[in-house]
Amino acid sequence: xVQRGNNGQSIFVDDxxxxxxxALLAEQASKFHVAVHAFVLLGDRFQLLMTPAxxxxxxxxxxxxxxxxxxxxxxxxxxxxxxxxxxxxxxxxEADGYLLECMVFLDxxxxxxxxxxxxxxxxxxxxxxxxxxxxxxxxxxxxLLWVLGNTPFAREAAYAELVGKGLPEAKRERLSASAVxxxxxxxxxxxxxxxxxxxxxxxxxxxxxxRKATSV
Length: 216
Known about the structure:
The chain has 8 helices and 3 strands; from the N terminus they run βαββααααααα. By secondary structure, it is mainly alpha-helical.
């Protein structure tokens, strides 16, 4: 899930704003029974990786977060009007094979954008939590993370190694496009099952010209 600032504007002025948003996310995630696995706060947006209890939990949570943060931000900085670039954008992710990659993507975003030299030096993401360097009690470690090692130290080391390997450019672009455009991330069977539940396209169309219709 990604929520962007209106017209690319920054949604944070200082660390007090970032601290407030993290506390707000923790409060509303608990209220609406949403498990937050990972997050990152960037200049003009924030991104989350979550598992809701029901299909209505994330929309309710994000509406509460959006309204509360705008009210706080406008009051604190003497402004008015909208802060967000419309509604948040999101997609569905098949855990096996994609969830940990999404976490790595969030962790590396500050480095790609020149906000930090390395993920572990950036204070405003969940990366340090999973290295044991910082604690965010509202985060829920996904099941796939537990299989990386039998002890906290082993899991932290394995996850650090995973992030250190980075992501190929093609995969990075796919993850970014999926969040913005709503393309589902998963196996062909996963995507096909989702497509059967909605009339909205959940995956990009195949490249090439469409076949001409024939009559018999």
